[in-house]
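Sync notes, pocket subgroup
Present: LS, DG
LS reminded everyone that the earlier model was apo-only. Rerun requested with NAP included. Inputs:
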Amino acid sequence: MSIRSSLVAGPMGFGTAPLGNMYRSISDDEAEATVDAAWEAGTRFFDTAPFYGAGLSEIRLGKALSKRPRDEYTIATKTGRLVLDELDDPNTRSFGEKGNIFKDGRPNKIAYDYTADGTMRSIEDSLKRLGVDRIDYVFIHDLAKDFHGDAWIEKFQEAQKGAFPVLDKLRDEGVIKSWGQGTNKVEPIEIMLELDSPRPDGMLLAGRYSLLDHASALQRLLPLAVENSVDVIVGGPYSSGALVGGAHFEYGKIPERIAHNVTKITALCKKHKVPVKAAALQFSLAHPAVVAIVPGASKPERIAEDYEAYDFQIPRDFWSELRSSGLVASDAPLPGDA
Ligand SMILES: NC(=O)c1ccc[n+]([C@@H]2O[C@H](COP(=O)([O-])OP(=O)(O)OC[C@H]3O[C@@H](n4cnc5c(N)ncnc54)[C@H](OP(=O)(O)O)[C@@H]3O)[C@@H](O)[C@H]2O)c1
């Protein structure tokens, strides 16, 4: 079943990496209040992963959703990392280019595993942490250079023999609705979409289809997704917060060239009285391959801002000037394009 046809309430999802204490520690109550705010605003699609705080995001999300009827929402989680019982020193561990963004998460060790057995175990563990009887979408997490360096190709091959056929089978048997990859990089998705088998039906592409960064996804990944009827969910539509006043880009400090582009986009938004958040969300959703967005938030009040941005009527002149000014790629579809 496609993601497009199984989403319960439209394209606005909620990305729960911040509930795993990403960048900063939040309380259980704040985490629950943020999920409640998303639910009350109408969100019925939630994205999580074992990686987000070594299970903390799944546990908190599961608890917050336990008061809601299971048929009324869809949930995505990831495979590729097992959360072990063994403990680690959270202050010294590092995750590739991402450093240690979850140092305030649970202290459990995390082990990469893209094999068939590891995939099954990961799903079973996620079901337990979430406290649900099924998961709708499963994305193989970070099968890419940013976490594995040059060894990512070997990891991809491990998944080709292990995770890919297992998830294909689970989808064909109706155990899950859809599967694919969840990654910050375009290459592993492009390679997968060019293979004859397996047959993924959805991808979570994070950070690579935002106002600040979209040119490479437009070249191959998104046209291939349209051609193969593979649905794309956009993660990180605010470029980790950099676009909208946050302190991070790509999980780290905001580089100068990015800050410069943010200033230009912000000035254009101001000129047309358009909230930057509105431009960000509506830009990501304008590509025909994109079926959902999962902005992240660690505070309940962000949710209302997100919905205002989603509903905001942006004048045509703003989009025309965004394109003519060269702030977005000339081939990026924009809302209102014929
Ligand atoms: N490999 C993958 O599969 C992958 C990778 C990355 C992301 N994802 C998914 O995509 C989701 C979203 O990604 P993301 O959370 O990294 O990035 P994002 O949605 O681009 O941005 C979220 C960040 O923006 C900040 N923000 C929002 N409104 C703000 C405002 N008015 N002022 C200042 N800051 C503001 C939030 O801060 P607060 O914390 O203060 O609310 C939060 O840190 C993740 O949660 C995850 O579900 C998946």
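DG: Strands lie at 14-15, 45-47, 74-79, 81-87, 108-112, 137-141, 178-183, 202-206, 231-235, 290-294.
LS: The longest strand covers residues 81-87.
Action: DG to write up.
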